[in-house]
Specification:
By secondary structure, the protein is of the alpha/beta class. The chain has helices spanning 2-20, 52-65, 78-92, 128-131, 135-143, 202-211, 217-231, 281-290, 327-335, 350-356; strands spanning 32-38, 69-74, 97-103, 106-109, 112-115, 133-134, 149-155, 180-184, 239-242, 300-304, 307-310, 316-318, 381-382, 393-398, 403-408, 418-419. It folds into three domains: 30-242, Rossmann fold (3-Layer(aba) Sandwich); 263-296, no CATH class; 298-419, Mannose-Binding Protein A, Chain A (Roll). Helix content is 27%, strand content 18%.
Length: 420
Amino acid sequence: MRYLLLLISIVIYFTDSVSSSVRVKDVDGESRVALVIGNSLYSGALPKLTNPIRDARDMRDVLKSRGFKVIYGENIDKREMKRLLERLYESIGKGGVGLIYFSGHGLEVDGENYIIPIGADIKEKSDTEFEAIALNQILKRLDALNSRFNIVILDACRNDPFSRAIGVGGLAKIEPPIGLFVAYSTGAGGVASDGRVGENGLFTKYLIENIKRPLDIQQVFRRTREEVYEASSNRQFPAIYDQTIRGDFYFTPPHSNSSRASKGGEADKIATIKPIEGRGGADIYEERWSKRIYNGERSYSFNSPNSVKDNLTGLIWTRGSSETMSMDRALSYCRELLLDGYSGWDLPTKRELQYLSDTGRESFPAIDTRYFNVSNSFTHYWTKSEPEYDHSKVFGINFLFGTYDNYLKSEEGYTLCVKR
């Protein structure tokens, strides 16, 4: 079964490669306006939510860095939501691209979907239509405008507080007007993860990562869906309703590069970001990752005959072990390693190890074999990143094709250790 998934991944990869090589319309001069709302301080029957504000702020920032003029609100009531929506309609009525992102509570009532403002007095589910804003009305207004392309993103598929069953909720399936692109954080009727305290929700986390990549909108959401599905151990599967007809859309156009500042943002070149004194390693590298556009660039040099320096991230890597071992043993192996005078080695995170994967190579394996001695087989390399819902597993990356999967910690895999 795993081999079949790897072969499917190859087909998807080559399909993406062909589609991304097509010359597309230059959108640099096109107006982009977004409305971003995060609501978390609910009361009454609607429980407070953990991460909508963080999600909304991070989405605001990444959209600004991609040339969007952002109208922003957090913890706002119905009157303010309607006012901000009118501002958006007025702006995108002049043409260009419009986007709405909402993170908070959403409810489905008799097949109609609603996004819930702060202060909504919903004692019974039937109160929703009077206290909330109907998604259908928003879609109709967008459809009536003169914009080329409109996107609606709802991270609002939480548990229904009016249901007696746990894990029941979400939004109803829809058929958007022609020309709109709508995405839910999980499938119709499904419930999405709000995420851990201090982190992004699962859907928004992966969506932001993919917005930074030079992918068309369909690829952005397809990859987000794949990553959310795997990270949730197959529990959360984002819904995509694509009714677009007016050309392509890229958050990060393919001609963008890391040496150029994104419109409305700062330069995204990782090599210019220096270590931050007094900050933990995780903070430093998360900041580095968040400030670069993923564009496939790699630069290595030998730190010694036994280790390799990644010149873009500053990470130092072992060249690869020839022995397979369990994840726990691999973690101990790295942390006990003394190499080139260094201690403090560790297993990489999924993001760190995935960066070494070069799926743009013309031959396999999908890693630079001038520097790394990796196995040319189906066996994976360990990370220490766990899926959201299953802590008996961690992500592993197969360098034959550059694909990744969840593996039980007791399985056998290869090891690359990293020094941060």
